[in-house]
Amino acid sequence: MTSVVHNLHEEYDVYIGREVPEHGIASSKWGNPFVMADESDTERSRAIAAYREWVVAQPELMASLEELRGQRLGCWCAPKGCHGDVLVELLEECGA
Q: In the beta sheet, which residues pair with residue 73?
């Protein structure tokens, strides 16, 4: 089962966030290009919705989606709402 975990607190298989040089983490092709203006729930929802619209329009990413199946996706958001949740939902929509 694919899941989203906080990359500093749990082990993960695939990092799905932006570059963080101070932690030695390179950016991921799965990262959300839509930056939150603040930490509000409204802003988080906006960034996640924008990611959903964007990612489904990226043929290369959609063709690679299966590589995430069964993996633990590491991001900075978990357990809060995250663009990684979109990736999990898309995998579920694609079937078992």
A: 4, 14
Structural domain range at position 33: 3-93
Residue 4 CB coordination number (10 Å): 25
Smallest Cα–Cα separation from 83: which of 59, 36, 49? 49
- Chain CA centroid to CA 61, Å: 12
Omega cis (within 30) before 79: yes
* Number of domains composing the chain: 1
- Alpha helices of 27-73 — where are they, by DSSP H? 41-55, 59-64
Give the model confidence (pLDDT) of 43-71 as tens digits: 999 999 999 999 999 999 999 999 999 99
